[in-house]
């Protein structure tokens, strides 16, 4: 045990505080364990060897008693427990150490389900990973309706639930529902569920409101012990093998074998159908040991650290105190992107939002979109009727820009053309105050040129959203040559209020994500133009497990937009960014891309790319693309487009869906030998070279 104790030397130890509680109705005495690391909810309960040892000692003392009717486990205010101490797990260097971690968790947690008296988990707050597994080991579970997060996120990080989750959860709620929590949600941007949904899935046996959660849980436990309440759990009758096979097919579609953790999780869930508890837990130990030693975990932890820490403290952001208050927002344009932004501003800032456009029909369509989306939220129970009415009232339209007179923040979302954007801002500046921030949602154009004719160019800032606006977490905030700190601070403040992760970017062509994706796409298209079969080039990077293949991505953004951005970057960097004549043909054809509505390749669209005489192999295309990405990132870092390589990784993870299991683009390129010199200094990333 000394080895893993050394690894977790900095562990914030979660204590197991035990007190006796006399249950109502004469049901007897419960030994109630409260998990508490001594900090408030901002530092959740986690488990390393120290915490597990203290919990084991508490269970030792409880098991020795003969006067108890039951055992309970709950957490400190707002937090039940969120699993293993990942800082220590990242330091594991031998498989034996990894096995010790898995076995220790099993040895301690399983005792809660193997005592002589029933055990109850009272899930009062966030329960993730090993925290949820503690609850699963108990005989019964209650959950608060106010719990904000229930999850088994291990596959998101390159692990599997290793302390009982893959064995206990499918036996409790069935394999299909268990797969949703163990595999599907982690692969869907690490989706969490709330207390009510966990109860509906059958994870908990009873649910109570937060105000008197513990009191009601104790009363319910007494009723269970007294026999007045019977917990009935339906038998698992679904086709276990089919549920696993269906999930494996979907994982293949998403990852194409690129990440081992989800596949190991599915193997474990499959075995839970027939395996004994001992055999199932031993299999979890082995899987955990293998994955703790793999690159995927360290890559995932590096990516997790970026989105949890660096994203919350953006490099180069000015002092928050400089930010101006925003009490009204103007949106120029009423198309889909503009309407999505208007809805987000209204929901998050809860201030009036006014859209403008050239004619009433477009304006009505934009405002109508917002109202329809609010109605969807209402139908799903995500807002009340009163809240829905308030949101609708906040979003209005105007045909004239004098509606912006009292706005503090005006953003344009018009056609990606410099002349159009300059004209828009000239018109807006006639009506707004000198302090009103002017923001552009441009995806590639020069901010400094855009503001060159403004009276107050210092209040112009780039505020680049990604589509769909409500879903994509990244916000590129661009500083022009004249942008002042008060404007930047206001932009970052608004970004935080919108719950976006903002990265400060220099005013450089196409900024970060679009610049790299355009270079990426450009190399694939160039290979096809040269004669490489389109389908071969399209799948040459499948082994990375990217969220979309290159031409599927092109279909999403639209050939016209992709071609326009490539022209912009070609004008700035002609030696590295080409303009494909065949892409121009695709745009002229009016086709939405190379795929037909049934997702098969459109022969007519594919034929537009025919004629090249120098085909490449899939490996050559892959090498070409990755080498080009490495070159472009090195140039961007040398140009100071962002403060550090970590910011490029953050942008690609949050704005382009670069997979967590790769740990960001720069560590992956470092590992694969494409980055010379290394993008990340040794020790910066928890990813082996």
UniProtKB/TrEMBL annotation:
UniProt KW Nucleus keyword: no
Biochemical pathway: Lipid metabolism; fatty acid beta-oxidation
InterPro entries cross-referenced by the UniProt entry: 3-OHacyl-CoA_DH_NAD-bd, 3HC_DH_C, 6-PGluconate_DH-like_C_sf, ClpP/crotonase-like_dom_sf, Enoyl-CoA_hydra/iso, FA_oxidation_alpha_subunit, NAD(P)-bd_dom_sf
Tree of life domain: Bacteria
Gene3D superfamilies: 1.10.1040.50, 2-enoyl-CoA Hydratase, Chain A, domain 1, NAD(P)-binding Rossmann-like Domain
Every 3-hydroxyacyl-CoA dehydrogenase C-terminal domain range: 511-593
One Pfam family per UniProt: ECH_1
UniProt keyword terms in alphabetical order: Fatty acid metabolism, Lipid degradation, Lipid metabolism, Lyase, Multifunctional enzyme, NAD, Oxidoreductase
Domain named 3-hydroxyacyl-CoA dehydrogenase NAD binding: residues: 328-507
Family: In the central section; belongs to the 3-hydroxyacyl-CoA dehydrogenase family.
Protein name: 3-hydroxyacyl-CoA dehydrogenase NAD-binding domain-containing protein
Source organism of the structure: Nonomuraea recticatena
């Amino acid at each position: 045990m000394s080895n893993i104790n050394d690894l977790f030397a900095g562990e914030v130890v979660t204590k197991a505080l035990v007190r006796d509680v006399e249950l109502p109705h004469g049901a007897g005495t419960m030994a109630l364990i409260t998990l508490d690391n001594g900090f408030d909810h901002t530092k959740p309960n986690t488990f390393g060897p120290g915490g597990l040892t203290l919990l084991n000692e508490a269970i030792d003392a409880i098991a020795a008693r003969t006067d108890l009717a039951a055992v309970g486990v709950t957490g400190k205010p707002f937090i039940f427990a969120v699993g293993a101490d990942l800082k220590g797990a990242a330091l594991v260097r031998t498989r034996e150490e990894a096995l010790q971690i898995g076995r220790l968790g099993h040895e301690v947690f399983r005792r809660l389900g193997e005592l002589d008296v029933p055990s109850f988990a009272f899930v009062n707050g966030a329960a993730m990973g090993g925290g949820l597994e503690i609850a699963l080991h108990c005989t019964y579970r209650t959950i608060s309706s106010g719990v904000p997060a229930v999850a088994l996120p291990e596959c998101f990080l390159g692990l599997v639930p290793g302390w009982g989750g893959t064995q206990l959860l499918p036996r409790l709620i069935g394999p299909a529902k268990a797969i949703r929590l163990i595999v599907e949600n982690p692969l869907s941007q690490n989706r969490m569920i709330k207390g009510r949904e966990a109860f509906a899935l059958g994870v908990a046996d009873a649910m109570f409101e937060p105000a008197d959660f513990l009191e009601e849980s104790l009363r319910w436990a007494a009723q269970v012990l007294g026999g007045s309440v019977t917990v009935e759990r339906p038998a698992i009758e679904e086709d276990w093998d089919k549920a696993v096979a269906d999930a494996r097919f979907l994982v293949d579609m998403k990852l194409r074998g690129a990440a081992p953790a989800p596949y190991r999780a599915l193997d474990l869930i499959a075995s839970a159908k027939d395996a004994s508890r001992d055999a199932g837990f031993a299999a979890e130990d082995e899987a955990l040991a293998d994955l703790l030693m793999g690159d995927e975990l360290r890559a995932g932890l590096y990516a997790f650290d970026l989105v949890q820490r660096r994203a919350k403290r953006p490099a180069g952001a000015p002092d928050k105190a400089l930010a101006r208050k925003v009490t009204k927002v103007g949106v120029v344009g009423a198309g889909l992107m503009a309407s999505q932004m208007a809805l987000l501003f209204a929901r998050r800032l809860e201030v009036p939002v006014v859209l403008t456009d050239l004619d009433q029909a477009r304006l009505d369509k934009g405002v109508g979109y917002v109202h329809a989306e609010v109605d969807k939220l209402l139908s799903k129970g995500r807002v009340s009727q009163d809240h829905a009415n308030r949101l609708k009232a906040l979003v209005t339209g105007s045909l004239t820009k004098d509606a912006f007179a009292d706005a503090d923040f005006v953003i344009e979302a018009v056609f990606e053309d410099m002349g159009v954007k300059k004209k828009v801002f000239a018109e807006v500046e006639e009506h707004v105050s000198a302090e009103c921030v002017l923001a552009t949602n441009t995806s590639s154009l020069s901010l400094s040129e855009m503001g060159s004719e403004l009276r107050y160019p210092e209040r112009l800032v780039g505020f680049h959203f990604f589509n769909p606006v409500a879903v994509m977490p990244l916000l590129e905030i661009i500083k022009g040559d004249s942008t002042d700190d008060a404007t930047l601070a206001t932009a970052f403040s608004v970004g935080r209020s919108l719950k976006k992760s903002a990265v400060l970017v220099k005013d450089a062509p196409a900024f970060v994500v679009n610049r790299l994706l355009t270079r990426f796409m450009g190399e694939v298209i160039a290979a096809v133009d040269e004669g490489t079969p389109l389908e071969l080039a399209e799948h040459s990077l499948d082994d990375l497990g990217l969220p979309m293949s290159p031409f599927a991505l092109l279909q999403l953004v639209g050939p016209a937009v992709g071609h326009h951005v490539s022209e912009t970057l070609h004008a700035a960097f002609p030696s590295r960014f080409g303009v494909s004549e065949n892409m121009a043909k695709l745009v002229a054809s009016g086709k939405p891309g190379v795929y037909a509505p049934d997702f098969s390749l459109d022969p007519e669209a594919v034929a537009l790319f025919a004629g090249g005489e120098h085909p490449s192999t899939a490996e050559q295309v892959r090498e070409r693309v990755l080498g080009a990405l490495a070159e472009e990132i090195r140039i961007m870092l040398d140009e100071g487009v962002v403060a550090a390589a970590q910011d490029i990784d953050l942008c690609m993870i949050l704005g382009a869906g670069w997979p967590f299991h790769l740990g960001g683009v720069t560590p992956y390129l470092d590992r694969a030998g494409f980055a010379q010199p290394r993008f990340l200094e040794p020790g910066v990333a928890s990813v082996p070279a």
